[in-house]
Amino acid sequence: MSLLRVRGLTKEFGDLVAVDDVGFDIEDGEFVSILGPSGSGKSTVLRMVAGFEEPTDGEIALDDVEIVGSPPFERDVNMVFQDLALFPHLTVAENIGYGLKQSGVPADERRERTERMLEMVRLEGYGDRSPAELSGGEQQRVALARALVNEPALVLFDEPLSSLDRKLRQHMQSELQRIQIETDTTFLYVTHDQEVALAVSDRLVVLDDGEIQQVGTVEELYEAPASRFVADFIGDVNAVEGRVTAVDDAEIVVDTGDDEVAVPRTAAGNAAADVAVDDAVDVCVRPFQVRVESAGSAGASDSDDASNPADADGAFATTGVVRSRSYQGSDSLYGIETDRWGRLSAEVRSASFDVDDRVTVAWDAADVHVYRRDGSESPDTDGGT
Amino acid sequence: MSAIDRVTDPFERFTQAHASRMASLVVVTVLAFLWLPIGVLVFMSFADGGVLSFPPDELTLRWYRVFLSNDAALDAIVTTLTISVPATGITVALSTMIAYAVDRYVFPGRNWLQLLSTLPIIVPLVVTGVAMVLFFNGTLGLPDYVSVVIAHVIRTIPFATLVILPTFMSFDRGLEEASKDLGADEFETFRQVTLPNVFPGVVAGGLLAFTLSFNEFVYTYFVKGSGDPTLPVYIWNQIRYNVTPEVNVISVVFLGVAVSMVLAAVSLTRVDLIARR
Amino acid sequence: MPEPSRSDDGGAAESVDEGTAESVDGRTTESGGELATDGGSVSGVDGRVSGLTTYLRERPRLRTLAIAGPPYGLLVVFFAIPLLAMLVVSFQADQIGGAWTLRNYTDFLTSDTYLTVVWRTFLISVQVTAIVAAVGYALAYSIVRFSRRTTLLLLLVILPFWTSYIIRMYAWINILQSDGVLDSVLNLVGLPALSLLYTDTAVLIGFTYVWLPLAVLPFYASLTNLDGDLIEASKDLGAGPIRTFLSVTLPMTVNGVVTGVVLVFIPTFGSFITPRLLGGTNNVMIGMVIENQFKSAFNWPFGAAIGMVISVVVVALLLLATRLGGGLFGTGGEES
Known about the structure:
- Chain C: Pfam families: BPD_transp_1.
- Chain C: Residues 1-44 are annotated as: Disordered.
- Chain C: It comes from Halorubrum aquaticum.
- Chain C: One of its GO terms (cellular component) is plasma membrane.
- Chain C: Keywords: Cell membrane, Membrane, Transmembrane, Transmembrane helix, Transport.
- The complex is a heterotrimer of chains A (385), B (277) and C (336).
- With 385 residues, chain A is α+β, with helices and mostly antiparallel strands.
- Chain A has helices at residues 42-50, 92-102, 107-120, 136-148, 166-183, 194-200, 218-223, 228-233, 302-306; strands at 4-13, 16-26, 31-35, 57-62, 65-66, 77-80, 154-158, 186-191, 203-208, 211-217, 238-247, 251-255, 260-264, 280-285, 291-294, 315-328, 331-338, 342-348, 358-364, 369-372.
- Chain A has a six-stranded mixed beta sheet, with helices on both faces. A five-stranded antiparallel beta sheet of chain A has the order 13-12-11-14-20, with no helix packed on it. Chain A has a five-stranded antiparallel beta sheet with strand order 15-19-16-17-18.
- Chain A starts with a strand and ends in a 13-residue tail after the last strand.
- Chain B has 277 residues and is mostly helical.
- Chain B is built from 13 helices and one strand.
- In chain B, helix 4 packs antiparallel against helix 9 (186-215) and helix 5 (110-122) packs across helix 7.
- Chain B starts with a helix and ends with a helix.
- In chain C, 68% of the residues lie in helices and 2% in strands.
- Chain C is globular and about 70 Å long.
- Chain C is built from 15 helices and three strands.
- Chain C folds into two domains: 1-41; 103-325, Orthogonal Bundle (MetI-like fold).
- Chain C has helices spanning 7-13, 44-57, 60-89, 103-109, 112-146, 150-158, 165-176, 181-188, 200-225, 228-236, 241-252, 254-270, 273-278, 286-295, 300-324, and strands at 3-4, 20-22, 28-30.
- Classes of the chains: A alpha+beta (385), B mainly alpha (277), C mainly alpha (336).
- Chains in contact: A-B, A-C, B-C.
């Protein structure tokens, strides 16, 4: 039995369908993020779980009890709001004790639990201050404590970290994880920031345009994105246009120009790729999986292979010129103008190239994901990009 | 508008060079214009010879003593208070309701409500005063006291609403959501979260309403019959028919009341927020 | 259709269950998971209020009516209807309930005396408005652009507005009368006395004095909202301070100017206190004529007719101002 069960959740605002038939489960003790661009409906989902929006259709069950229709103050969930919504007229301790007061917890117990919470979020001695006197990070902690102290079944987060600078945000991320484990509480976190979501979550729900794109662990989403959207949204991706020339249970043969490459259907990806012969497809590969070698080096003879990549045992390859380079700590990110597929990016650890160097670019067919392009049912898609 | 044009225009250059000094001159001159008459008034309340002698031969508290033993003036103050206090209470309640309704709800006539609550500022006082005396006294036959209190409420509602509405609008509704999320129902949320946060604005609106009502003249002058005059009407009669230096003393009392009320109101809100309306 | 303007109310409005309510001593009275239909299961004042909240939560129309209704009703009955009643009375002869007639209007509009008074009133109002707008704008501009302690200065400007109108007039009587403060000071420095009281100048000074603080508010507000970068951009692009003012600052604050002009012109046009106290017998304004009808001539319908004439002038001016873009009715400033 899942702690939170969402089924067929739909929310319409007039003609606008903000959330469309969304369903997912959250298990007890999980840290789940709903990730999506702004306007994807992720906050609406959260607000329906909290009780601030009534679904047009669908079910939300908490601990197997249907909660749609009950007001927010009767739901066993608490929220950390985007702007935190700390009560400015109350002290930090009064803010934290507010929920306990509403449920009739006696004053001394309230004080004790508030004190314990302040310790948990490392704000001992801050109880008598006003929220306005605290820094952004400290206010985040108060908001978190205010939700956690009620020991709700589920804590909701509406992008509370988005206002913090990068460094503080990363610190708060690890604090969130620590506190989630220490309190053994279930967290549902909404954000548009894939970096945050990847860092903190056990599982992710990717939402776009009101619809679920994929649900899975961070690894699943990164290594086997279910759609071009997910691939783009979670990490960077290179896309090469192609056309399917043959397809069976074992492999998908893709023509990316002059050549054909057989992409294996493995467990990690493409196993479920829904493509047919003659479909226009995107062949996607992560920058870190792209190999770059100097075209003038010992492997120069490979450059001839590049014009005939199909023989390189299931690899994609071409030649190109380095156009840009940016350092990213231990790696370098290169922008390479390829002869065949336009501009690609490659993340390279050891080798070092300069702008204008001629290079060969290659990657394994086993590393790519093939997605049918939208509207590709009609064969004559424009060949742009 | 070449660069050469620009640097050779003497007026532009002069203005650019002396803008700050010109601004200071304007501020000092206008503030002097605004405050000197008030200073004169206060000063003259201590003049022994009264209004007609400047500079006075001697400073004295004589007129203050005369004022304190003048039953008519003191009665006028009491009369004013018996009108202003209830009028202020009613105004605060109604203005808060207007602010809440306009801020929270969309309903038919919402724009009309806003217009109606602003209009008394715009319609010339003498026109509204005439309309009121015709309708209250002529048509409805309301008792004097009731007419005057209603007139004061109409007079003060626009100003109180002007102050209270922004405090509702700037109130973060997210706090109410947070409160409900933490288990408080609508009423508890209003009592524990909304009210404490809008309270300063409501009190400020009340203080300004009281000040305005305490000073109200035109409506009162038209609507009120021949009974006990309010303080402003009393002063009007004094000035028009028999000027005595005692009026200076009453003026100082007035000023004291008004200034302390407004300062209290300002300390509760922010004056530039009121202005920004 | 009354709808909550924001969505959270919408969510709450449909829920029926009233679970808990805090009673006076801070303890919670649990009503379990049952439906507390009208708060019957909780006790005490809070309980009843909670019951009422629940009752109203289910009836948004009633809730809106309960809150907007009373002030709405009061303003309609005691403000809007009296103005309409005045219109009716203005068509009656001699007294309320008199025979229907147009005579009040024809008498007024064909009388050279009254029309001269209206014209005089108009001229004085225009002069006052021009003076107040110029001085008030210069003041607001100086405060916003060049002063550090803006809040204090603004406070010093508007404080006099909250003192009694009559007392502010009385202060000027002290100053302007023959042998008053002004004349005495002039005497001390060897200049001739002016005896300004009971002249047009006195009336202008008086009006300027009372309306200046009022007009500064909208000027100040619009200047504060003006992005200072725009002024610097204009100067950077080669316009001097005067041209910048005329081509950037003034056009961008025109709403505030129009609002200030309306706030000054309208009450001046209807005023009777200032001309009565500071003006002489040659300085009659239309407001004084109305006052006379009610305080000495006792021809109420005639006074009502003049009131209507003033109102027409005012409404015409307001429409003009709205056309020019005054934000006078932009109250609320919220999406609807």
